[in-house]
Write a structure and sequence with these properties.
- The complex is a heterodimer of chains A (about 130) and B (about 110).
- By secondary structure, chain A is an all-beta fold.
- Helices cover about 0% and strands about 50% of the residues of chain A.
- In chain A, strands 2, 4, 5, 6, 9, 12 and 13 form a seven-stranded mixed beta sheet that branches. A four-stranded antiparallel beta sheet of chain A has the order 1-3-8-7, with no helix packed on it. Chain A has a two-stranded antiparallel sheet with strand order 10-11.
- In chain A, strand 5 and strand 6 form a beta hairpin.
- Chain B is mostly beta strands and about 110 residues long.
- Chain B is globular and about 40 Å long.
- The mean pLDDT of chain B is about 95.
- Classes of the chains: A mainly beta (about 130), B mainly beta (about 110).
- The interface of A and B includes residues 44, 46 and 50 of A.
């Protein structure tokens, strides 16, 4: 069964740090890009960061650039998010999500991009 | 524009058809993907590309796109379809799936 399980969330004070993990199973982890997506209480989804299968390509949302670091260990089938200088506005449920290689539709000539598997999330609360 | 815009809320009578839309400049270059999220649960992919459904998604869910607007249509809405729906697209740089719409809360009456 394809599965993603996040862990590492908790309560942290402003300015503090936290490291989230996402354990993958049931698929060839190194073949997929991975994403972190968060959702603040009562709010919508916000993309946080992505990393390619070989870690060659890494991207961050402007809201976390310089504070968060995404990484992965393909030997351990694990994705990480190191979060430093945390702020109250980082309070959210953090999901990891799998992104397959683009699907090329020969009929349309377009590549399709999407996140097809999501974990259940881990909650991060930043509060004094 | 680096945004995707969705109507905050839409309602549909049980068994009727509803369309949820998503607008943004990025949709002129990339097809949207659509996610369903029920309270307390993780998002679930329901549509990707022009009109592709992952395994297990009922065929009452369909997608379409024209210009800068992507649409998710539910034909014969069921009570279990009541949820929040989010569109997602590559951003203008084309480097990542960094654009989410604000979400549409679908109520099935």
């Amino acid at each position: 069964e394809v599965q993603l399980v996040e862990s590492g969330g908790g309560l942290v004070k402003p300015g503090g740090s936290l490291r989230l993990s996402c354990a993958a199973s049931g698929f060839t982890f190194s073949s997929y890009s991975m994403n972190w997506v968060r959702q603040a209480p009562g709010k919508g989804l916000e993309w946080v960061s992505s990393i390619s299968g070989s870690s060659s390509y890494i991207h961050y949302a402007d809201s976390v650039k310089g504070r968060f670091t995404i990484s992965r260990d393909n030997a351990k089938n694990s994705l990480y998010l190191q979060m430093n200088s945390l702020r109250a506005e980082d309070t959210a449920v953090y999901y990891c999500a799998r992104e397959p290689a683009p699907y090329y539709d020969i009929l349309t000539g377009y590549n399709y991009y999407y996140m097809d598997v999501w974990g259940k999330g881990t909650t991060v609360t930043v509060s004094s | 524009s680096s945004e995707l815009t969705q109507d905050p809320a839409v309602s549909v009578a049980l068994g009727q058809t509803v369309r949820i839309t998503c607008q943004g400049d990025s949709l002129r270059s990339y097809y949207a993907s659509w996610y369903q999220q029920k309270p307390g649960q993780a998002p679930v992919l329901v549509i990707y590309g022009k009109n592709n459904r992952p395994s297990g998604i009922p065929d009452r869910f369909s997608g379409s796109s024209s210009g800068n607007t992507a649409s998710l249509t539910i034909t014969g809405a069921q009570a279990e379809d009541e949820a929040d729906y989010y569109c997602n697209s590559r951003d203008s740089s084309g480097n990542h799936l960094g654009l989410f719409g604000g979400g549409t809360k679908l109520t099935v009456l």
